[in-house]
Amino acid sequence: MGENDTAVSKVALLLGILAMILTMAKAAAPLHNYTDALSKCILFYEGQRSGKLPPSQRMTWRKDSALLDGSDIKMDMVGGYYDAGDNVKFHFPMAFTTTMLAWSVIEFGNLMGSDVQHALEALRWGDDYFLKATKGVPNLVVGQVGDPYSDHGCWERPEDMDTLRTTYYLTAKKPGSELSSEIAAALAASSIAFKGIAPKYSHWLLNKAKQMFDFANKYRGSYNDSIGKAACPFYCDYNGYMDELVWGAAWLYKATKIPEYWNFVKANAQFVSYANDFGWDSKHAGVNILVSKWLMKDPSQASPFVPNADNFVCSVLPDSPTNSVSFSKGGLLFKDGPSNMQHVTAFSFLSIVYARYMEAAKKVVHCGNVTVRPSKLIKFAKSQVDYVLGSNPLRMSYMVGYGKKFPQKIHHRGSTLPSIIKHPKPIGCRGGDQYFKSPKPNPNILTGALVGGPAEDDSFQDSRYIVTQSEPTTYINAPFVGVLAYFKANPS
């Protein structure tokens, strides 16, 4: 063999090695850009803001709205979030959203990088509003702003609203323990998130959380009755208010270490025994996983909370013999009810949090003959995240603005109608119908919004008419903030 042949062979060998390295690197690279997804997931909240927008507002097609909220009862209720694609401020899901944003920061804030500042801004937007809503404790707590029937009868931008902005409130004679407790949980959790950053603000939040819990516990009753048809059927409390009372007490104990709160949780453990329910209406699995952190290493205290948390794990994993959810052929978790993506994000969040607690305690879970280690729970959560971001049969991202293919015609008023920048004249109640019916994509991209998601056969109708699939909500995104922060730091 000549010198030239030898040189060619060496080059070929080197090229082969290089190709192998590139192939291995490609295989090891994460499928998705979790950093980008996290930034967009948080940015979504700027599109849901109500009130006077700050100079730092990044989603610039949104402008000031609902600047007279609360004036009907002579209170300043300007601010807060619109819950979904409408212009009502439903406080029950808004409070849960705030709790989950706080929990995301508590667990994963150190993994968020520069996005932690935006997460805290999103959190404070909710906290500042609830401090206003609870200003009258114990005599009056605002429970909702906006008449849903008037609102849902129009398709108009929040900036143009001329629908009824009725303020609904709770009192000692018209209580709402589930709503008051969820606000207590939100403020207590937020006090932890802000403790090392804004100590005075944290202290203020915690004091208000204590007042709210006392109000919720002393004057027991459901907001279903007190607010009535303004809350139902939109956000009825279907499973009673005791799970919220336990949830509020658990967060207050975590924030204060005051024994009375922990005693309340233990005395009412039977109200949070259901394994696989967690969301704005049900706090069962959330309570059990939250308190398991300080119980795992103490078997005498573990029951029933740690066994309940273990049952949650066994209820959601696909290969568990006691699984009680279903999965599409593409691998997405499904649970009964509208807006399925809320279950996907909430269950993924709990799975990662519990995996971290298990790892710290060197614990495994046994689901029949299936042994569950922390890595298995992380793998499950990652499968859900990757499906949401585009690893699915349609190769579609269900986060607006993320990836090459995402929902274009979401059920959302502000996104559907032209911005007042481009159309400064008011668009009346029915003036927006032409935009709702248009076959064209929404003119304003609600970046980061997670929609309700596909059907159980992995199909998706990108249509404003199919509300359960195309409408985003604040409480879908909130747990996903923590989930994406984790995978930003641990992409593979």
UniProtKB/TrEMBL annotation:
Name this polypeptide is given: Uncharacterized protein
Organism: Bauhinia variegata (Purple orchid tree)
